[in-house]
Amino acid sequence: MPVPLAADSAPTTFEGATNTVAVLLLLTEFAMLRATLSRSQVRLYAVQSLLVSGLAAIVAADRELPELYALAAVSLALKVIAVPWVITRLLRDAGAEIAGSGAIGAASATLLSLALAGVGFFAVGSLDISSPYLPQAALGLSMSIVLVAFVLMIVRRDVVSQAVGFFSLENGVSLASLVVAAGMPLIIEVAFLFDLLVAVVVFGVLMRVHHHRTSSLSTASLTSLRG
């Protein structure tokens, strides 16, 4: 009697672990969207970045890519420790705790994010992109993270939420790069991380200047600048 093919196509432990981490990355993005405190958003970003670093280490161990250990270490130092510390320090100086209100209601923002996440996941899945490093589902989840991050940046009316949305968008891009290009030279991958440093400096200056002029981190008043 022939052995069923379903047993041969069962997901491996590596695929199960990596898909689980990718799902957790998406869930933390939704948690950022729902968070009402700026510090909570920063902590969630640190958790999400820790998951990205852990995923890089898992891929390095299973696919025998030792350069990814260095990438995981740099990502850990920069995105899990340095960036959250800088934003938290700026929040302490500004004395702000409550994140800005959304341009739309929380329920509407969540439904919009769910719709976009689904569209992104299935759209990427239809491209039939294969990778020797991570399962295809992780690539679809990375697109979902990017789209939800865009929603966070658009609907929230405070500098911190928009900065966290931008930084978490980079985590989605990092996940996608692990899927399709984990074997690229280390110097190229690290260069992407240092682009994040430029963004941190820009958002840091923006937060300080905006708070100095308006005594608030809300961007609602910036609508008066429209021509």
From TrEMBL:
GO cellular component, one term: plasma membrane
InterPro entries: HyfE-like (IPR038730)
Transmembrane segments: 20-37, 44-62, 68-91, 103-127, 133-155, 164-184, 190-209
Membrane topology: Multi-pass membrane protein
Record keywords, A-Z: Cell membrane, Membrane, Transmembrane, Transmembrane helix
Keyword Cell membrane: yes
Source species, domain of life: Bacteria
Protein name: Hydrogenase-4 component E
